[in-house]
Amino acid sequence: MAGPETPELAAAAVAGGADIVELGFPFSDPLADGPTIRLAAERALAQGMRTAACLDCLRRTRERVDVPLVPMTYAALLETYGWERFAGDAELAGATSLIVADLPVDLRPELRRVQLVAPTSSDERIRLAAEQTDGWLYLVTLTGTTGARSELSPELAPLVERTRRLTKAPLHAGFGISTPAYAAAAAELADGIVVGSAALAAAEEGASGLERFVASLRAAIN
Amino acid sequence: MNAPASPGLYGDYGGRYVPETLIPALDELSRGWDEASADATFRAELDELLERFAGRPTPLYEAARFAPAGKRILLKREDLLHTGAHKINNAVGQALLAVRLGKRRIVAETGAGQHGVAAATVCARFGLECVVHMGSEDMRRQHPNVERMGLLGAEVRPVEFGTRTLKEATSEAIRDWITNVDTTYYLIGSCVGPHPYPAIVRELQAVIGREARAQVLEQIGQLPDAVVACVGGGSNAIGLFAGFIADKDVRLVGVEAEGAASLSAGRSSVLHGSRSSVLADEDGQVLDAHSISAGLDYPGVGPEHAHLRDSGRAEYMTASDAEAVAAFHQLASLEGILPALEPAHALARALDLDAETILVGLSGRGDKDLAEVLSH
Questions:
Q1: Does the domain made of A6-215 have the CATH classification 3.90.226.10?
Q2: Tell me, what's the ipTM?
Q3: Other beta carbons within 10 Å of B301
Q4: What residues of chain A lie within 8 A of the CB of B275, using their CB?
Q5: Where are the domains of chain B?
Q6: pLDDT confidence of residue B278
């Protein structure tokens, strides 16, 4: 989640072995998020992390790391900032793409972004998402909101299998992944893993805590 | 203007701004609703339940002592329905739909507790499991309704974050639905949310306007000059307006709480799955709404209202807490009717509206608000 410590935390994540860094732009009513990210968003908003401050944070993070940086947010922020203006300013600040958690593939097709597919998605929607997506597909591993779970969702394997038949796009699996063992199991199936809530929790112990956590995931999936 | 131009859109408002996980469930819901509304058996079952279980039709009553000199004010008495408010119209219809779709678990949000009570009531009637998400601040303000829901067999889950009111309760109900989408039906309480909810709730509440139009013609031999209803999410207003939208000479007036005026003071944004007029700051962060009436305490509003405002077909005004309380006392002492504080906002504007014959939606009864009124 964007905040004063973000550039340092992003650098630590990259040092630990992260290939891509997702940067949350907080929204007051995040429908896709469980308690960890919701609380982080509440805290970030209380610290004044509005859109302009988040873009500035993105710019400062870009100065510290070379990996792709992907803001993750909600439609309300783009709606009020202006859709094109948001995409343009994010790119200028160093964003590589964008994830909008409550913007299904059929809305705003002109906005280049990483598309999400879920275990409930039809083949037709997966195909559409794969055609529209920007670089890779975000596979939502489970039917639910974000937040650490203790084991791999049984819904991931069939979703990966189904999606592979429909597209050659790289598949990165996220939602729920919390431990090295779980990360390794997910990485057996998908091309990459996305870790949000558990990384936020690790970052509570500062940059070194986050670096250690990411390094443990990296070691588990290599 | 009667139906959205393209599915789920009212002008530029509405749509489906939800996580991908829910899209197939919304498609299933749309198909299920279309089939149900075209099915004569479903309609007959709904009509019978509305008549014998909910208490329809409700009377249209002329409040001659309440009306100022030179005005006629007629009240559509939804307060006389089972559970005390118009919410039951929607709850009965959606419960029938849930059963038809084979869902046995119902999740709902509530603010004042009126929709939660209506949902708990229909779940008891149909033998469905019922979970109601409710902000802990609202649970404190509306304690009798929390106890009612419990007695009806529903589980009330306190929502302990953010403003602890309807806004968070709605988000949490949607998250519950995302998590349990295979088994669960989301029984939304107002004409908000992703498509097709605004259309479903409007259709189920349109019975208010259909009855009212026939009754007013029969009783006074003419259409009213204006139809006035309070607007929180906007379901009783859209249901009442639906009966008169085609009557171009009838003014449609929605009344919001001064501190929760999503239409009068909001901006275009996205909340709870649809694009509408939202009380939000210049970054799109949703603001807290404030009203003495928990049922109007919501920073969003149904997308069709935003469209009716922009098109000029309906006008939207506000009433303050004090004006609502004054209207409450006036209706109580002059007509022997204790209105809910929500429609008391509509009553307040009806008193000074520049129109002779006014039909007001009396959407609920005031028993739940006694403590609030007495302490004001």
A1: no
A2: 0.96
A3: 34
A4: 75, 79
A5: 11-48+87-197, 55-85+206-375
A6: 98
